[in-house]
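S.,

Sequence below, as promised.
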Amino acid sequence: MEVQERILDTAFNLFRQYGTRSITMDEIAQKMGISKKTLYAHFADKSDLVVNVMSRHLKLMEEQCLAGKEQSKDAIEELFLVMKMLDDKLRNMNPVAMMDLQKFHAKAYQIFEQHKDVFMLQMVRQNLERGIREELYRPDLDLEILSRFRTASAMFCFQPDMFAMSGFDMTRVQRVLLENFLFGVVTLKGYKQIEEYKSKDYPK
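The prediction came back faster than expected:
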């Protein structure tokens, strides 16, 4: 793996556990066993590093979401595959990381907002449309409202005043929110599919 990619991966793991504010460039260099000179040869400053970490992380997530969509047999399995991906991405993630982005890294947070408001919203709507075609979701759904509701609810776990890290596992929060959303939109056929996928090797 190239040095730049190693830096991005190391920084992402530190940022998601401790937030961006509490992690210094010195600590990242020390964690990697490289000099600060090497670190600054790839990134101008900490803000530049945070922007690149966010861009790379979201790009990888989008690629995995699209791959899950292609691999899935139906709309419900697509969401369970996304859940498996989030299980890995959100593990040990501190909600304060998102607050740090919003407060101290406006450009990186704007990149995340663009991802949420465009990519996520589009993926949710397309999933709802697919589920209706497959007769797994009810045909009377208000796609505009439900797409926005689901996209917004996926952000709840990043709010420490609502789900403190010490009391809630973020993967569990996402799973419960997703399952209850699904139970609200599925047909009887879809309900049976949820129970089938829950019995398989998906996040518990």
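Residues 51 and 176 are 30 Å apart (CA to CA).

Coffee later?
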